[in-house]
Amino acid sequence: MIFKTFIKRLFPRSFDNEIYNLRPKDLIIRKSSNHGGFKFGLSLLIIIFLFAIFGPIILDVSPYEQDLTKRLLPPVWKEGGSWEYIFGTDGNGRDYFARILYGTRISLTIGFGAACVGMIIGVSLGVCAGYFGGWVDQVVSYLLTCQLALPGLLLAMTIVFLIGPSITVVIFVIGATHWAFFLVVSRSATQKIKSLDYVTAASAIGASKFQIIIRDIIPNTFSQIIVIFTLEVGIAILNEASLSFLGVGIQPPTPSWGLLIAEGKEAIFFQPWLIILPGIALFTLVVSINMMGDGLRDITDPNSKVSEE
Amino acid sequence: MLRFIAGRLIVVLSVGLTLSIVTFFLLNYVIDPAQAIAGEDALFEEIEQIREQYGFDRSITIRYFEWFSGIFQGDLGISYYWNKPVISLLIDRAPETITLALMSVSVTILISIPLGILAALNPNSLIDRIALGIAVTAQAVPNFWLGLIMILIFALAIPIFPVSGDKTLFHFVLPSIVLGASSVPAVMRLMRTGLLDVINADFIRTARSSGFYGWRLVFNHALRNALLPVVSVLAVQLGNKFGGSVITESVFAINGLGRLALESILGADIPTVQILVFVFAIIFLFFNLLADILNAYLDPRLRL
Lengths: 309, 304
Hints:
Chain A is mainly alpha-helical.
């Protein structure tokens, strides 16, 4: 300890900036453990994930089982509520807690699935545009303008309605209408990386263009892509909820949160918790994902500082 | 400047043309329109009959050219669902959506620009944190849910605004808040970072050293430059509002283009849907073009 203080006295600058002492991995860990928003978002998301995976296994509840004698029971904190149905029951006498719990799985599946589809489309186009440049770049920019101009929600609604709604269709349609951010970010990242020395070195030792893209470029765009990915998961979840709310997404009786809100809308003034509860669930999930995304952006930004602690 | 506008115009026109082809083929080739009209349980003979009746048995290229040349003659096709020319539907419904779009962008401006300025002038202060909190919340709240909560609050607790319909301008207040809130995060963050960048620029230091200070410095020198990107983003957001009106209009029962779109989709009314997709795309492209021209006009460096 004394030795370290002595060295610190001797070379104050080199110890001011922790970057000199830490490996990149440790630096990322240090940055993320000091980022409040990121920690909050990540832990909330982990809790939601655990709920979605283990909740239905541990708790013996069914989102489909109807009991018409127990219709529209109030939640436990309202007068007449009981612990048997924590969130009450819906218009068909189904356990509302179970429906919201199973809805978490659907939102997560569609959010991550659609963001993956969008990422595959956007990153492959963006990396090609950035690496090859020239006419490839122009064609891709043209595609980007087309994608941005199309009213995404309207098109998604139409296609889902006409093809026939199912979880797979919804995932692919939302993914196919949300790849613009991936494209823009991976394109500019590739343009920067492609002129770096290690790419030149790789091509000098005879790596093919395909190898360079796969081994040298895509892994290095990762830190920027992951930020967009998280934010797109949030957008996709909101999009799915909107589609289901409008009746052109997930179909009843599957418990999608958007659908629950649409069903609760009929009784908005009498049983307001039917729309408030799934909305809060949706909001919590998307907030946790967005806070994690915002945090990741700060953490992966090489110019951000390590805060003193 | 003229060359710049001409170049942008060519891009916009060709994108518009591509989109007309894409939408038409998507809705007429990938999906069988006769099947969509007849419904899922229709018999084969019924589908064939509809196919002949509406002329779907002809080649798709011919139908596309008929449709596309019709657009320029003011003939947008006949809606199957409403049994009316699509153009009269559009003219009937457009005023509501235009009102909603303009009002919601005003809401966005009223909330995000003052907040963005205050946040930039006091970085890391309480107001900055509140502004960030508003941005994070507005980004995560589902639009339709916010609308329903507004209805709940304004119908029961504080009945000052009507919660459904489109009779008077008051009916548009709540929908505009809901639709406008969705653009607040983007515009506010842009305003904040833009102003922060400008405040640290050299010419502001010069202005400060020649005696400008306080609000005069901010409004006359800093804000002018920081507003450039914000104005263009607002134009783009205005274009977005038309496509985004679908949810808000159906929640608040406004008979605009968005609700028309939803009703037409649920009625499998392909002529109306394809025109609406095309019209929304053209509106978006128009406002994008407007933003580009505005930017180039205000900042000569962009005229390349």
